[in-house]
Specification:
- It is built from 9 helices and 12 strands.
- It has 262 residues and is an alpha/beta fold.
- It folds into 2 domains: 225 residues, Rossmann fold, CATH 3.40.50; 27 residues, no CATH class.
- The protein starts with a strand and ends in a 7-residue tail after the last strand.
- It is an enzyme of class 7 (translocase).
């Protein structure tokens, strides 16, 4: 069952068209990876799906309800968003920042259940020892994991993440992706992740959607989408795609514009 369905979504910044009729859906328990070169529209698409930007065409259905008909508090209880930049929330501790993810459920007080959910999310993302640290004192990668923990305590059915692994070392990249894929399966979440690392995406995502110039170029299982032809057409590189592991992986050879050179 699709928890989120996007149909013919279009968006423009004034006279610059950014998205062209994008259509996709994500089922419960599924991780969808959005991939494509810089400027292809991944971040704009995520912001349109979340409701931060208003598309000029198409629909976003959140569990069979059109998102623009929903109150913002309803959306926050159904969908969480992790931005590309973790920010520098000076004055707030890690615990306080993650606790903000409980805002859609809070009235005037924080109860023990809210605190326990925060502690569990911190432990899950290896942040327990940093709970009382000021977020401004953390590294970029640590702040990114804090924002992911904040999204998890929001307890939504859909999670949107914009390049959540960009500031992480390889160990934490794998750890975060394993957590997200595991939660998708265990809790029936629909997870949408914009990624630059194609090998990471192919390893942890059930399906990939390749974007080029604001449109969908390819959509399907990693072994169907990650091809040498796609890498040439979308990324402009010559690469070899290996298929001797559980997931396909690509080995870049040279930029496409150097093809035929020395």
């Amino acid at each position: 069952m699709a928890l989120i369905s996007v149909n013919s979504l279009s968006f423009a910044y004034r006279d610059r068209r950014v998205l062209h009729g994008v259509t996709f859906s994500v089922d419960a328990g599924e991780v969808l990876g959005l991939v494509g070169p810089n400027g292809c529209g991944k971040t704009t698409l995520i912001r349109c799906v979340d409701g931060m930007l208003s598309p000029d065409g198409g629909t976003v259905m959140l569990d069979k309800r059109e998102i623009r008909t929903m109150h913002r508090r309803e959306v926050a209880r159904a969908m969480a968003y992790v931005p590309q930049s973790a920010g520098n929330r000076t004055g707030a501790t890690v615990f306080e920042t993650v606790l903000m993810g409980r805002r859609p459920y809070l009235n005037w007080t924080v109860n023990r259940t809210d605190e326990e959910k925060v502690i569990a999310a911190l432990d899950l993302l290896d942040l327990g020892d940093l709970a009382l640290r000021n977020v401004a004192e953390l590294s970029g990668g640590e702040r990114q994991r804090v924002m992911i923990a904040r999204a998890l305590v929001q307890e939504t059915g859909v999670i949107l993440l914009d390049e959540p692994t960009s500031n992480l070392d390889v160990c934490h990249q794998m750890g975060v992706m394993e957590v997200l894929r595991g939660l998708a399966g265990e809790k029936g979440l629909a997870v949408v992740i914009a990624l630059h690392d194609l090998n990471l995406a192919a390893t942890y995502c059930h399906r990939l959607m390749v974007m080029k110039a604001g449109a969908v170029y390819g959509y399907g299982a990693p072994e169907e989408v990650l091809t040498e032809e796609m890498l040439r057409a979308v990324y402009g590189i010559e690469a070899v795609v290996k298929r001797d592991l559980s997931a396909p992986y690509m080995v870049p050879v040279r930029p496409g514009h150097l093809r035929g050179g020395a």
